[in-house]
Design a protein that fits this description.
This protein is an alpha/beta fold and 279 residues long. The protein is 41% helix and 16% strand. The chain is built from 9 helices and 10 strands. It has an 8-stranded parallel beta barrel with strand order 3-4-5-6-7-8-9-10, surrounded by 6 helices. Strands 1-2 form a two-stranded antiparallel sheet. The longest helix has 18 residues. 48% of the residues are buried. The protein binds 9-methylguanine (9MG).
Length: 279
């Protein structure tokens, strides 16, 4: 199974890829305000690459539940200087975390290679045409609703089945828009319109999505369902996040999105070493 993102290509199976998070926002739930200065954001990303990140995900709009959206101009102002500088300084692919097609296009022009789209439940194909035109990679994230509405009343008869059906339908629509399956990574969207139970059901059912023959990305880093389950504040969720990541990799995930790159890389290498004894 191959994942292509412009000049980058990953052939799976291979060791789990760790995607480092760089939020250029004042209000993200965990690191909001830390990397608003482009120089600080770039230094943080470079440190993540040194620690073993093989993708850097840059975002300029918070996607936490209830977050206020930002204008296109403000989002561009936040992310483009970071991506331009980073593209000159790191060899790993840069992913743009955005819901806006114009931001994705500008970010790809500035040197990004992947579009991380938490709004893959979109109705029109403008974002997918950007991905098709540029040969970018595309992370297709499941979300019920929007960041403003998603946690008001998440509701599924069968979360694993509904997310699986969504992936099948999106792969078809992406293909109709000119995006090849080899450009697509799938992500169940932990916390995007899900209760604690839905998140746990999706983690338990993760293996079922491997039949779609696309890499699976998981983002659990420091998320609130870990806090709700364990009674842990956001700064105390590393162990819970790593437990989910190890579980997910054993169930077939290939990419882990995280704030804590060094710790996640170590957990991945350990999980793979144990698993290698079994194969
Ligand atoms: C931007 N963002 C926040 N959480 C995420 C998750 O779980 N997956 C992806 N792909 N992006 C996320």
């Amino acid at each position: 199974m191959t994942f292509r993102a412009r000049q980058f290509s990953f052939a799976f199976p291979q060791p789990t890829l760790v995607m480092g998070i760089v939020n250029v926002t004042p209000d993200s739930f965990s690191d909001g305000g830390h990397f608003l200065d482009p120089a600080a954001a770039v230094a943080h990303a470079e440190k993540q690459v040194e620690q073993g990140a093989e993708i850097i995900d840059v975002g300029g709009e918070s996607t936490r539940p209830g977050a206020q959206g930002v204008s296109e101009a403000e989002e561009l102002r936040r992310v483009i200087p970071v991506i331009e500088r980073l593209a000159d300084r790191v060899k790993v692919p840069i992913s743009i975390d955005t819901m806006k097609p114009a931001v994705a296009r500008a970010a790809l022009q500035a040197g990004a290679s992947i579009v991380n789209d938490i709004a893959a439940n979109r109705t029109d194909d403008a974002m997918w045409r950007v991905v098709a035109d540029t040969g970018a990679g595309y992370v297709c994230v499941h979300m019920q609703g929007t960041p403003q509405t998603m946690q008001l009343n998440p509701n599924y008869a069968d979360a694993v089945k509904e997310v699986g059906d969504f992936f099948v339908e999106r792969l078809r629509r992406l293909n109709d828009s000119g995006v090849g399956a080899d450009q697509v990574v799938l992500d169940v969207g932990i916390g995007f319109g899900k209760t604690v139970e839905h998140n746990l059901q999706l983690l338990t059912g993760l293996r079922s999505f491997t039949k779609l023959q696309r890499p699976l990305l998981l983002g659990v880093s420091r998320k609130s369902f870990i806090g709700k389950l364990l009674g842990a504040d956001v700064a105390e969720r590393l162990a819970g996040s790593l437990a989910c990541a190890c579980w997910a990799v054993r169930a077939g995930a290939q990419i882990i999105r995280t704030h804590d790159v060094a710790e996640t890389v170590q957990a991945m290498r350990m999980t793979e070493a144990i698993w290698a004894q079994e194969k």
